[in-house]
């Protein structure tokens, strides 16, 4: 069994757990949801006051059993939305995820210090999984110390990516794998590369990640 922990695409295969991520809007309905998804309010789509209607809808839909995680949500210093507003919307999603006991899938760009501070301040107990992680060792070590989890994607296919070291050495149980928005790569390729870097057979990695996924989503 392969698990694509974060993808924007609908893929169906008997040996694939495809956790499709959707950005909530005010119009999104239960029948639009795939059988398995993560649902959140991405910082890119927080505009003035229109996010509030989307938020109300998220509160309603997030309770559904097919929504196994909240996100992607988080902080992004590369966009025009004020960081204070991003933090406000992020904290609402943390509280929602905490109430529902569902894990958070996090998008974070150049705001790791704020992310750690928020985790400390909220005393959140659900798993926080940073998706598309591709930062240098000092950053992931610090995040590990604060009990974060990671989802690694296409970056690990490159020899020069800072996360190649992370994927080679990080402890079992602390990470998952993903394809994100890429359609030119498959989750099998990501597993092959991760298994090669960790010097384990793909089947071992598959079992480990299934266990991690089940633990994080309680599924
Ligand atoms: Zn994504």
Cofactors and ligands: zinc ion
How many structural domains can be distinguished in the coordinates? Answer: 1
Mean pLDDT over all positions? 96
What proportion of the residues is helical, as a percent range?
25-40%
CATH superfamily: Metal-dependent hydrolases
What letter string, H or E per element, gives the SSE order? EEEHEHEHEHEHEHH
What are the low-pLDDT stretches, counting only 5+ consecutive residues below 50?
none
- Cα-based radius of gyration, to the nearest Å: 16 Å
Oligomer description: single chain
Strand content: 15-25%
In whole angstroms, how far apart are the ends?
14 Å
Report on the structure:
- The chain is an alpha/beta fold and 219 residues long.
- Helices cover 38% and strands 21% of the residues.
- The chain is built from 7 helices and 8 strands, in the order E-E-E-H-E-H-E-H-E-H-E-H-E-H-H.
- The protein has helices at 51-61, 83-100, 112-122, 137-145, 163-169, 187-198, 202-217, and strands at 2-7, 16-23, 37-40, 67-76, 104-109, 128-131, 149-152, 175-177.
- Strand 3 (37-40), helix 1 (51-61) and strand 4 form a beta-alpha-beta unit.
- The two termini are 14 Å apart.
- The model has no long low-confidence stretch (mean pLDDT 96).
- Bound molecules: zinc ion.
- Residues 6, 8, 21, 72, 180-181 line the site of zinc ion.
Features:
alpha/beta, TIM Barrel, 38% helix, binds zinc ion
């Amino acid at each position: 069994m392969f698990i694509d922990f974060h993808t924007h695409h609908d893929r169906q295969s008997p040996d694939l757990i495809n956790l499709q991520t959707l950005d909530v809007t005010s119009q999104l309905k239960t029948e639009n949801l795939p059988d398995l998804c993560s649902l959140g309010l991405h910082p890119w789509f927080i505009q003035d006051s229109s996010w509030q209607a989307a938020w109300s809808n998220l509160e309603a839909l997030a309770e559904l059993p097919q929504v196994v995680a909240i996100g992607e949500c988080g902080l992004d210093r590369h966009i025009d939305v004020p960081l204070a507003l991003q933090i406000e919307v992020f904290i609402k999603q943390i509280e929602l995820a905490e109430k529902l006991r569902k894990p958070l899938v996090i998008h974070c760009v150049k705001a790791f210090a704020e992310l750690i501070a928020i985790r400390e301040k909220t005393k959140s107990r659900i798993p926080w999984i940073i998706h598309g992680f591709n930062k240098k060792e000092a950053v992931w070590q610090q995040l590990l110390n604060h009990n974060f989890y990671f989802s690694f994607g296409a970056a690990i296919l490159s020899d020069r990516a800072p996360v190649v070291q992370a994927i080679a050495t990080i402890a079992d149980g602390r990470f998952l794998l993903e394809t994100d928005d890429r359609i030119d790569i498959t989750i099998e390729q990501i597993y092959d590369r991760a298994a090669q870097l960790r010097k384990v057979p793909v089947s071992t990695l598959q079992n480990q990640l299934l266990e991690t996924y089940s633990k994080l989503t309680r599924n």
